[in-house]
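Supplementary Text 2. Reproducibility record for the structural model of the 332-residue chain.

All settings were left at their defaults, and a single model was retained for analysis rather than an ensemble. We include the record here because the model underlies the residue-level annotations in Supplementary Table 4.
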Amino acid sequence: MELSQPPGSTPGRPAPSLGVTPGGSVRRPPDRTAPPPSLSYELYPPRCAASAETLLRTIEELEPTRPDHVAVTYSGDAPRRAGSLALLDHLLARTGLRPLAHLTCVGSTRAELEETVTSLLHRGVRGVLALRGDLEPDAEPGELAHAGDLVELVREVEQRHTASLAGGRLAVGVAAYPTRHPESPSFRHDIEVLLAKQRAGADFAITQVYFRPQRYERLVASARAAGVTIPIVPGIMPVTEPRRLATLCRLAGLRPHPGLAAALEEAAGPAERHRAGVAFATRLARAALDAGAPGLHLYTFNEHRAALDLLERVDLPRVPHQPAALPDLLPA
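Retained model, structure tokens:
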């Protein structure tokens, strides 16, 4: 993917500030005065020409659903970091989508992070998802120990560049964990960490993947009881391949849901696996919305079909779309 020309300081719309009310799984009558549920996706930079073509098609197919933002993953590895910046520039210059830039603090100095945030602002990015990042064995931890420290740094840099924000405010998101973080001593500790991120200046949270509806409901109820007031958006991943499920669980420290794992393993072919994965994710999404979730964040694997199939099955609007020709943005 070629590096698009940065569009300057055109501000994007921050993620909506929606409330969350914890509750059960019984569908509630719609609140006509409430804003519609938010919608967002996660994309990651391509690693080859073939995956770049798939990503471009995915962006083309997802844009008509009018997401509130599109998250772009980030790596401390220099070549992959360049790919993240190229994808951000493409979204800003070639689409009407609002990027939410992942930013991790592990392995970086404070000066490096300040430079990165400044670069994002100058590019026109108006949303950041502040994460600690995965600490690899024998790797340098960096100067900031926690995601909350990164949130504070982002806000400090924002204050120094208020003129370029044209009176707007940077939207800062953080991660939340329905299932205990692999390094956390307890679920209660995770809630305390989320509260600390809010106090540092976070506007909203997106959950990591989970497989049981009760996990999200417990997270929201516990967070509200502890004083967390920011929106907590459920992260939903339509998993349609057994190998992908195994990899996801290994990286996230989760146990595979036995029903989903069996359905994917026993499916007669790709079409049946796809239907099983989408059906499972749809149930999670519906349960979260029924429980008062302010929207959905869909982890896409850079593929559009499962995400769009899920949207057709839940109460979120989708605009019909006729595919157009792909732009010539593939690497030589």
